[in-house]
# Entry
Amino acid sequence: PAALKAWQASMQLTQAGAAAALGVHLATYRDWLTGKSRTTGKPVSIDRRTELACLALSAGLDDAHWLCQI
# Structure
């Protein structure tokens, strides 16, 4: 959760903005921030794809059109 909070702050996003940027529901994003599921109370963490999405967004790759260039 700390790394995700740091990413959100570095991107100057609200929780809603961060969730939208990652393409997830706000409730899911909040679960990641707390580290546990709001419905089950079990631990949750972000997956590898979401980690990579955070890195890509931080690097300015917010548009998938560059994929067509490969």
